[in-house]
User: Which sequence fits this backbone?
């Protein structure tokens, strides 16, 4: 019964990205990979990026978590394609929430996970690039 109530908290866009997630999986030879966990619930999100000429060429995600986390990572990977590294550094979870048409307050941290995974992937990319430049 309580599960049924939970479902009604999600709008059609969230449900669509949960049921038909975009960009799910890994990227072979990703340029940057970020994996983060939410202390509050134990959910884990991994985002892989392909970066060309300073821009996000492709993105994939793997999320072991709730429906909001899956929808958030699906939407985030859609939103960032074509953006520059600097734009990603300023990326906010609020953009994911807005694009999803809102999330219940107790599920906002799921979108924060997407922001953190993205930024971790950019950090990984920059670390690898700095190592190559040396
Ligand atoms: Fe923790 Fe969704 S409940 S990521």
Assistant:
């Amino acid at each position: 019964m309580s599960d049924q109530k939970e479902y009604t908290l999600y709008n059609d866009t969230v449900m669509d990205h949960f049921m038909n997630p975009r960009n799910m999986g890994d990227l072979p030879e990703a340029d940057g990979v970020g994996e983060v966990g939410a202390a509050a619930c134990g959910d884990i999100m991994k985002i892989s990026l392909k970066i060309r000429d300073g821009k996000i060429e492709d993105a994939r995600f793997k999320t072991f978590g709730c429906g909001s986390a899956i929808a958030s990572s699906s939407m985030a990977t859609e939103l960032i394609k074509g953006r520059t590294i600097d734009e990603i550094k300023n990326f906010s979870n609020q953009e994911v929430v807005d694009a999803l048409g809102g999330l219940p307050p107790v599920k906002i941290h799921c979108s924060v996970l997407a922001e953190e995974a993205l930024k971790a992937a950019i950090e990984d990319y920059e670390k690898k690039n700095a190592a190559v430049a040396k």
Q: What stands out?
A: Residues 1-5 have pLDDT under 50 and may be disordered. Residues 38, 40-41, 43, 65-66, 68-69, 107, 109-110, 113 surround FE2/S2 (inorganic) cluster (CB under 6 Å). The chain has six helices and three strands.
